[in-house]
Amino acid sequence: MSTDRPTSENRLERVLAFMVAGSVGLSVLCIFAVLIATAAGAGAGDGFSRGVWPVVFFIPVVGLPLGFLLLVVLLIVNAVRRSREARTGS
């Protein structure tokens, strides 16, 4: 059994998994930051339109759909790898 090919395929799956976790994790942290800042009164007087807050609001808008798409890609890559393994019998 060759060790080069499964290692690269496992590496791709690992990279995709970390990208999903990073994207969704950062989005969830940004959502919590907005919730905590709102409770602390940071948004009073249009405070969320200045500084870093527009970026913090935008990250979940992009990060969560990106995480979902990466998760779908990860599932497809995993299914293709498993079908190849089943076909070759190794």
Automatic annotation (TrEMBL):
The chain crosses the membrane at residues 15-40, 52-77. The keyword Transmembrane applies. Keywords: Membrane, Transmembrane, Transmembrane helix. It comes from the Bacteria. This is Multidrug ABC transporter ATPase. It comes from Agromyces soli.
